[in-house]
Amino acid sequence: MSKVVISTSSFDLDNNPSIQRLIKAGIAVVTNPHRRKLNEDEIIALLNQDTVGLLAGIEPLTERVFASASSLKVIARCGTGLDSVDLAAAKRHNITVSNTPEAPAQAVAELTLGLMLTTLRQINQTDRLLRNGEWPRMQGHLLAAQTVGLIGLGHIGRRVAKLCQAFEATVIAHDPYLPQAPTGIALMPLEQLLAEADIISLHLPYSTATHHLLDAAAFTRMKPGTIVINAARGGLVDETALHDTLVSGHLGGAALDVFEQEPYQGSLLQCDNITLTSHIGSLAKESRHRMEIEAADNLLCGLVNMGLIDEQ
Known about the structure:
By secondary structure, the protein is an alpha/beta fold. It has eleven helices and twelve strands.
């Protein structure tokens, strides 16, 4: 029997029409038994050689994975990025790949705004001190008074820009693939943005070219008190350099939702001036539902186009 693998850490099977159609068509649906991001060996074991379709999370989908999954024909990413997929290898193995770039955008943008406000007003630190019996009177900053530098103005970055502008913040951006910025946003070189922004927020894919885009040298270029936000991809920030810069007091704070290794267990856990969340950017109920529906529709459509499921 052919099977479809759903490798995301969670998935609502019961309320997804496309998945239910696959089940009625006799396709076995296998979910992620680990309920977390899979490594290369784990996704290979899960796919095996009888999987025709994969509804993918953020696990590494490499040449080695595709070579071991000889029946795999369709990958539908449940999310916006495709940096975890070796697209050239997928093409060599005649595997079609899709994603859902619009579905999670609002959820990630709203989390990003929440991380900015939390850091500016030191909400987490105040909460911790209060629970320890203190009554802190910590003075924060207004988002309206900040210059927000967005690195990347795609589906998510543009939404973050609108939210920040609604708070009357000044928005600047760096995006080498964008010929013209939206109204009210100044495009500039990365070095200039690093020097001018009070808050720097990342909204771009991970690749070898963007590995540790924010490293020790980049942190040095930033103004004292700058806040760094990353709800995009782990690996964009050199976490060791970030730790050292936070400890030194050069940065005003930081917030990360993504990490190079997840679950995260590194030295940033010891810093009081950073907010850490567990890759929850898309985990708003409404966005998650839309993302799962769109990914399953993409998967079903791909299987129909391949002749693996009858068109109805």
